[in-house]
Amino acid sequence: MEFYALIGAGSPGKPLKVIFDTAWSTSWIMSKDCPIRKVGCWFHSKYDHTRSSTYIKDGRSYNAIEGTYNLTGYYSRDVLKMGHTVVKQTFVEMTNVPYWYVFTKADGVIGLGLPQNNINPFFNNILEQTNITKPVFSIYLNRDKASNKGGSVILGEIDKKHIHVTANVPDKITYVPINAASALWEFSMDKIFLKVGNKTIPVCNEDCTGLPDTSTNSIITSQEMLKDINEQIGAKPFYFGRFEIECDKVNKLPFLTFVIGGANFTLTGKDYTQKLSIGPFTVCISAFTAATTVSEQNRWFLGGAFLSKYYTIYDLGNKQLGFVRAA
């Protein structure tokens, strides 16, 4: 499952599907300069700066080394249009992406991370160039396949309709500071544990660093942590680095709790598994995967399995993150 939205790039606007990515600061879109031999660019819409009247050349090269693969391209500047919002943005025209991008629907990424490398992320430019002045955005993700709405990116505010209500009172938002030394929405968690029957089994008791990641449906952790979790939930190797759980055991799986800012954020087996139908077969896939890239090491990347249950507030002004159960 992918969460993506439609934007327009350039003038006239080239329609593109993009992922709004809180774990990435740089925005990028596939370029018409991606050569035909690069399989990852096949079947995607591509940006052609020669057809845009608002294009401004930058030309600096871009190369991100992500473990087993590279992302390469060059910087350009043009307008990006999202709904009625128009922003002048520096982004990467990507000319090389991994082959497996051919299986994705997205044509690019809008980085919602923090400023780095003298590049302003998309939301920072919105604050500087539009009438949105409150330095906060929030994201609601919906994993209900029966719905045609994948979620919402709310710029400049918190939408109370996405906050769970208990006894007519909205649940309290738990705020935690982001790590000052990081250029990402990185934060410290108190601990992580599994509840197996009456037993509490520690998963992480110290140096538990989290990062909300809207670009993935998975929860990404180290090989060691993944091995421990898989042993407790009975997950077996599947394909493409994923793990399978017997579907009739999903409702009996142990609860996994992330303790953040002194509050418990708990996932049930149904939250951290996804049922897939492949022809006549049905399999249940665990959301937990192992870190494979340089940027994923020593962190817990909390993707859609977590973020679809907990509405998340990104408070740039106070440099903090807010979490609350989603309605």
UniProtKB/TrEMBL annotation:
Family: Belongs to the peptidase A1 family.
Pfam family, one: Asp
GO molecular function, one term: aspartic-type endopeptidase activity
Cysteine disulfide partners in this protein: C34-C41, C247-C284
Protein name: Peptidase A1 domain-containing protein
Listed GO CC annotations: lysosome
Record domain Peptidase A1: where: 3-324
Keyword set, alphabetical order: Aspartyl protease, Disulfide bond, Hydrolase, Protease
Active-site positions on this chain: D21, D213
InterPro entries: Aspartic_peptidase_A1, PEPTIDASE_A1, Peptidase_aspartic_dom_sf
GO process terms (BP): proteolysis
